[in-house]
Each structure stands twice: as structure tokens, then as C-alpha cells.
Specification:
The structure holds 2 protein chains of 2 kinds. Chain A is of the alpha/beta class. Chain A is about 40% helix and about 20% strand. Chain B is mostly helical. Helix content of chain B is about 75%, strand content about 0%. Chain B is elongated and about 110 Å long. Classes of the chains: A alpha/beta, B mainly alpha.
Chain lengths: ~280, ~500
């Protein structure tokens, strides 16, 4: 325990060493990322390079910080330390290359807009301040809805869609962005079998187009089937790499074996000390 | 009985469309032609006020109308952003600013009651109030509603205390400052009208050109931020627009009631449409109409202040919308539920009769035919009460599916028999599909089939037929299973 506290007090030497390993052209490289809510660390020294054109699953138990990892990459939560780079540049400069599918529950689906309106939101950045959504933008949005198989529901109000259809609307919105790096937060959560198949087809499609996709996933049974790269996460990266190398019983045990790991205890102790 | 309610529902909806456009002006016009110049009747005065012919009141009516348009529009965003209470905290926090502005202006030797000065003071403390809410929320673990409750009451209390102090100090009279609490539209003069109009029109234009940005802000803040939109700044702009409307509305409606002027039109408009653009339009119209009628009525009945009347008019429109609203009104919802229940009940009855007929014919070794069925047999077939069966029979009779429901035997009509066969067939197709393709146990399938079969479209039935390769009425899978078990 004392040793752990000491390294976290002075984490700099480690950082410098790690930086040399990163390749500048990786779609996403994360350098020593630490995220804390109310002084309690949620993610601890994440250090990753994601290779291009991979379909990457982020797997770990509840509270492991899977969603937080995505949000930290997208600047949606404040980071305690660390650096995230997209194709060698800070995320702020590369927004147009990045698509984001938030968790379905993160918004109010009773909102008075149609599926098409939501998908068009993916184009707002291109459209720019004060300008209206034009027909050409609507056509792009409609095409994105067609790609996820619900083109006929374009004018339906979003509360009248099923959970799976709502998830597809969110995917279509990300597709409309035409990004090269996608972050998806639990796209498979509580969707019907047809939607799950549609999403998998879409993910494979993105992969053949050479795009990189990171997907927060909770169903261990389908990991080897869906993803060719895996990040096993439980506050820190337990293992990351090609699925066949990394997705082993030993690593899974390390990830899921008792949620209250040594790190959680250390983090708790640290927050206690700082509060005093 | 139900027919009657349905009919009234439809006619009321139709009439309601004309009510505002036709009824009021017509009535007034008719009266105005009758009156002679001895003593103007109440209707005549009302007519003159409503149509802006009366100079004294036209300023007030016009300002509240424009104010209503703008507040209805910006209120939509406030509602959709789930910040309704924020508007309330803001308006209550304006009060100390009014008192302080009076003190500062008198100390500097100006007219302490100059409206722009007072409103400037109100804006400053109003914004401070909102900032206080944000500070409390972001620095502690206190939630939004508690933070707003605290700020709202503290600022309002401080405001009341300051006004009391101002009143007690000798010198310039502070009488009339408290009118900002409940509003006094009648005291508006031309310059006030100009101020209100400019601000309201500016807010209208701003919220329309920022429509796309505000929609994103209200719907999906996280996605917006990931796209690089300055969500924080947009939030501030939106609150600034709300603050502007609140402050210029203080004089007409008062700081306690202004929140109703912001939220009620938006909430009412939501019942009529699922499209944000129409909601904005409807909300602005409802706000404008409330302001127009409310101020007019208050101008005629001089004892009534404009604020409360405007709020009451808006509330009436809200209640009307809640009941009759086209897309989310209570009546609409309960009727569609009722109609579905009727349809399901009728289909269940027809299927029950068909299955009994099938059993009877089967016993004689004949194909199913339209033979009379006894009332008791239907009663035994399903767990229905006799009362329920009689109600269902009446329903089926109305559709001409049953020839005679009075006696103890039930006889299906020719179309009724066809319909019963079709319903039974759909039910069984669906059951078999569930068993063969969805891996559902035969004992559990009946209920699942029950819940879906009533919404099976013709296309889906065709698809099922192709899938299962069946053209005639299949046997019930339960019986198949029973037979299999009996054989084993």
C-alpha cells in the first residue's frame, strides 16, 4: 500500500518513458490518462495505442470506467492528468474525424423531433452557426437512416420508435458525420435481435472501409465473435490487444475477479488522506 | 353511450378551431352595431379594446401580445431544457435589484422610478441569482431543485426587505415599486411599450436564428459538446434571452406570475404536436393570445390586474389542450386505448366461437362450418363473465358479425364467419411461427400470440404464410401437442 501511494504522488518518470512507445499516426493514442470524480479515481494511468482499421471492444465490469474512458477521450469529462491524441493531434483539432454514439438513455426520447431531425444533428457542425438544415443535408441524413435499415421511419417522432430503432437513429447520426474514428457507448444495450444483427453488419462494414471503431460492450459471450481487438478495463487497462491473444481466462479473471481490487482500495485511501 | 362521447369529442374539436377566430369578434361586432351613442355597453368596450381602437388600452394590449409571442417561443426551450424552475429563480431574484436601483438612482439625484434604471437593476440581481444557483450546484452536492429553492427564496426575501427599507426612508416616494411583484400593466406608457417591443422582437429573432443550436442544446448536450459546440455559452445565451423577457415582463405580469407566462404556453402547445417547429409556433400563438385577451379583459374590468388574468387565460388554454390535444391529449389517448380494447375483445370472441364450431364439427368428422353455438359453451371456453360476453356480443353485432345475440345461441353471420376464420388462422400462424422460429415453448405461446396477433398487418401475414408454407387454417399447436402427448 505505501508503495502505491508513493508512485501516485510522483508519477512523472513513468510518463516520460511511456511516451516514446506511442506511434504518431495511430487513430487514437491515450497517454497516461487519469480521471477522478470527487477525488476518487475512476480511470488510472491509461496508456493505449489503437491501431488503424480495427473493431475494438471495451470490456469490463460495471463501474470499471468504460463509458468514462470514451467520455474522457471526447473531452466530456475533466481529466486529472494525461493526454489524448487523434491521429497525432489533440482531439479539439480533429473533431471532424470523430463520430460519437452516446448511450441511448442519456437523452429524453420524448423530445418533439423526428428521427430525421436527430440524424441531421450529426451534420450541424458542417452546416455551421445560424444556417438552416437544407434539403441536401436531409438527403444525407435519409441515406444514413437507410444504411441502418430504418429509412421508412425518417419522419416518425422519436418517442414512437422502439428501443432498437432509437439506437439505430443514434448510429445513423454518427454515420452522417462521416468520421474515420467512431466511439460507441453500449450500442448493444437492450436492443432486439434484429437490431443487434444490423449493428454488427454495420460495424463490419465500417471496418472494411478502414475505419476504426471503439465499442463499449457488456456481453462477454459475443466478444470473440464481434471484435478483432479488445481492451479489458477495470479502472486500469488489464490487457489490450488482438482478441485471440488478450481475451483469455486469466485476463478475464484479472478484470472481473472481485470488483474491489487493490486499486480501488488505494484510491479510496488516497481520497481519505487528501480530505484530512 | 360511447358513440355519443366520441361524437361530442369530434365536434368539440372542430368547434374549438373556430372559437378564437370567429366567436369573440362576431359577438362583439354584433353588439357594436346595435349600441347607440348614449351608453357604450360592456361588449362594445370589449370590442374596442380587443381591436386596439381604444388608445389608452391599446398600448398595454399590444405590449402584452408581443411579450406573449416572445415568451411563448423562448419558454419552449426553457421547458425542453428542463429548466422551468430556473426561470422562476431568475424572476424572483429580480426584486432586490429593483429596490437597490431605486436607492442608487435617488442617491445620484435621478428620478428613482425611471423604468430602464429599475430594469437594469433587476437584470443584474436576476443574473446574480442564476449564477448563485450554478455556483451552489457545481461546488456542492446539492441538486438543482434545492439550489433553486434556496436562491429563489433568499433573493425574494432580500428584495422584500429592501423595498420595506426604501419605503421607510424619507425623501422621494417609493410607492409603486411593489407593483413589480404582481405587475401593473395599466401603468405602461408609450416609452415602456417601445422598450418591451424592442426586447421582445430581439428575443424572437435571436431564438429563431439559434433554433438549430438550441435544439441540440436541449436534446443532446453531450453529443453537442463532442461536436465542439460551446454548450456552456449557448446555455448562457438562452438564459440571457429568458432573463430579457422576464425583466421586460415584470411591469406587465409581475415577477411571481411571469414564470406561468413562459412555461404554460409551451406546455399547452406540446399537447398538439410532436414537431418542435409547430410547438414553437403554437406556443408563441398561445402566449400572444393569452396576453391579448388577458390584458383586454383586465383593461375593461379595471379591478382585475392584467397578470393574473393573463395567467388564467393561459391556464384555460393549457387545460383545454391537455384534454383535447391532438397528439397527446388525455381524451385522444384514452380513446385509442379504448378502441384497441374493443377490437381485441371482439376478435377474441370470434375466435372463441370459431374454435367451438371447429370442435363440434370435428366430433362429427366434418370440416368447420358456420353452425350455431350456445352461450354457455362460449362462457366455458374462456374465463369471461356473462356480462362481458354480452358486451362483446353487442360489439360484434354492431359490426354485423353476429346475426342474433338475444337468445341463448350465438349464430355468426356469413362475413362474421369469414372474419372468425381469418382471425383464428392469423393466431395459429403466429403461434406456429413462435414455436418453430423463436424457440418458445408450446405451453407459453398462446399468450404471446394473443398480444401480437391483433396488430398483424396483411403484409406480415403473407410473410408468415410464406415462411411456414401454409395456405389453409392450421390446427392449433396446443392440440397437436396434446395429441402427441396422448400418443406417447
Amino acid at each position: 500500500m505505501p508503495k502505491l501511494l508513493k508512485t501516485s504522488d510522483n508519477p512523472k518518470p513513468d510518463n516520460r518513458l511511456a511516451e516514446d512507445d506511442h506511434s504518431p499516426s495511430a487513430p487514437l493514442s491515450i497517454h497516461d490518462l487519469t480521471v477522478a470524480y470527487h477525488r476518487k479515481p475512476v480511470l488510472w494511468d491509461i496508456d493505449l495505442d489503437i491501431p488503424e482499421g480495427k473493431l475494438v471492444g471495451i470490456v469490463g465490469p460495471n463501474g470499471a470506467g468504460k463509458s468514462t474512458l470514451i467520455k474522457a477521450c471526447l473531452d466530456l469529462v475533466p481529466t486529472a492528468s494525461g493526454l489524448v491524441q487523434v491521429y497525432g493531434e489533440p482531439y479539439k483539432k480533429q473533431r471532424s474525424l470523430v463520430g460519437y454514439v452516446p448511450q441511448r438513455e442519456s437523452v429524453d426520447w420524448d423530445f418533439p423531433v423526428s428521427a430525421l431531425d436527430v440524424v441531421a444533428m450529426g451534420l450541424y457542425r458542417d452546416i455551421g452557426w445560424f444556417h438552416m438544415v437544407l434539403r441536401k443535408h436531409k438527403d444525407i441524413a435519409r441515406a444514413a437512416l437507410e444504411r441502418v435499415g430504418i429509412g421508412h421511419l425518417a419522419d416518425r417522432q422519436i418517442s414512437q420508435l422502439s428501443g432498437g430503432q432509437q439506437q439505430r437513429v443514434f448510429l445513423a447520426r454518427a454515420l452522417a458525420q462521416d468520421a474515420t474514428l467512431y466511439f460507441m457507448d453500449e450500442p448493444f444495450a437492450a436492443v432486439d435481435a434484429a437490431t443487434e444483427r444490423a449493428i454488427v453488419t454495420l460495424l463490419k462494414d465500417l471496418k472494411t472501409q478502414g475505419k476504426t471503431t471503439l465499442v463499449v460492450h457488456h456481453d462477454l459471450a459475443t466478444v470473440t465473435q464481434y471484435f478483432d481487438w479488445v481492451i479489458l478495463l477495470n479502472m486500469r487497462v488489464v490487457a489490450a490487444g488482438p482478441t485471440e491473444d488478450v481475451f483469455t481466462a486469466e485476463n478475464l479473471h484479472k478484470t472481473y475477479g472481485g470488483k474491489l481490487t487493490l486499486l480501488a482500495e488505494a484510491g479510496h485511501a488516497l481520497s481519505q488522506i487528501k480530505r484530512q | 353511450m360511447i358513440r355519443l362521447v366520441q361524437l361530442t369529442f369530434r365536434t368539440t374539436r372542430r368547434i374549438s378551431g373556430f372559437a378564437f377566430t370567429l366567436f369573440v369578434p362576431l359577438l362583439c361586432h354584433a353588439e357594436s352595431t346595435v349600441t347607440n351613442d348614449q351608453e357604450p355597453s360592456l361588449w362594445h368596450i370589449l370590442y374596442r379594446v380587443f381591436t386596439f381602437q381604444d388608445y389608452n388600452t391599446s398600448l398595454v394590449v399590444a405590449s402584452t401580445l408581443i411579450l406573449g409571442l416572445a415568451s411563448g417561443l423562448i419558454g419552449c426551450f426553457l421547458l425542453l431544457r428542463k429548466r422551468s424552475l430556473m426561470g422562476d429563480a431568475l424572476s424572483h431574484a429580480c426584486l432586490p435589484g429593483i429596490g437597490l436601483a431605486f436607492i442608487v438612482m435617488t442617491a445620484l439625484g435621478f428620478n428613482g422610478k425611471s423604468l430602464p434604471g429599475l430594469l437594469l437593476g433587476a437584470t443584474i440581481t436576476g443574473v446574480l441569482g442564476v449564477l448563485a444557483v450554478l455556483v451552489v450546484r457545481n461546488t456542492s452536492r446539492i441538486k438543482d431543485d434545492a439550489a433553486m429553492g434556496i436562491v429563489l427564496s433568499v433573493f425574494f426575501g432580500a428584495g422584500v426587505a429592501i423595498l420595506k427599507m426604501v419605503e421607510d426612508t424619507p425623501g422621494q416616494s417609493a410607492a409603486g415599486l411593489e407593483s413589480f411583484i404582481y405587475g401593473r400593466a395599466a401603468s405602461m406608457v408609450f416609452s415602456d411599450f417601445i422598450l418591451v417591443s424592442i426586447v421582445a422582437v430581439a428575443v424572437l429573432i435571436c431564438s429563431l436564428i439559434l433554433l438549430k443550436e438550441f435544439t441540440l442544446l436541449c436534446f443532446d448536450e453531450g453529443f453537442g459538446r463532442s461536436q465542439g459546440w460551446p454548450i456552456h455559452r449557448l446555455d448562457v445565451i438562452m438564459l440571457a434571452l429568458v432573463a430579457a423577457i422576464t425583466v421586460v415582463g415584470l411591469q406587465a405580469v409581475g415577477l411571481i406570475l411571469i414564470i406561468a407566462f413562459l412555461i404554460t404556453p409551451a406546455a399547452a402547445a406540446r399537447f398538439w404536436t410532436n414537431d418542435l417547429r409547430w410547438m414553437l409556433f403554437g406556443s408563441a400563438v398561445i402566449g400572444g393570445v393569452s396576453g391579448w385577451i388577458g390584458a383586454s379583459v383586465s383593461a375593461v374590468l379595471s379591478k382585475l390586474a392584467a397578470g393574473p388574468v393573463i395567467v388564467l387565460i393561459a391556464a384555460s388554454i393549457f387545460i383545454f389542450s391537455m384534454v383535447f390535444g391532438r397528439s397527446r391529449g388525455v381524451l385522444r389517448r384514452s380513446f385509442s386505448l379504448h378502441r384497441l380494447k374493443q377490437k381485441v375483445g371482439r376478435q377474441h370472441l370470434l375466435r372463441a366461437v370459431f374454435e367451438i364450431q371447429e370442435d363440434l364439427c370435428d366430433a362429427q368428422g366434418k370440416p368447420p362450418a358456420n353452425i350455431p353455438v350456445s352461450f354457455d359453451a362460449v362462457l366455458r371456453h374462456r374465463t369471461w363473465s356473462p356480462k362481458r360476453v354480452r358486451a362483446l356480443l353487442r360489439l360484434a353485432r354492431r359490426e354485423d358479425h353476429i346475426e342474433d345475440s338475444a337468445s341463448e345461441t350465438i349464430r355468426l353471420s356469413e362475413p362474421g364467419f369469414g372474419e372468425a376464420a381469418r382471425i383464428t388462422r392469423n393466431h395459429r400462424l403466429w403461434e406456429i411461427f413462435l414455436i418453430t422460429h423463436a424457440d418458445i415453448a408450446a405451453s407459453h405461446v398462446d399468450r404471446d400470440a394473443d398480444s401480437v396477433e391483433h396488430v398483424l398487418s396483411a403484409d406480415m401475414v403473407r410473410e408468415l404464410e410464406e415462411h411456414l408454407d401454409m395456405q389453409t387454417i392450421p390446427q392449433s399447436p396446443h392440440q397437436i401437442r396434446q395429441q402427441q402427448e396422448a400418443r406417447a
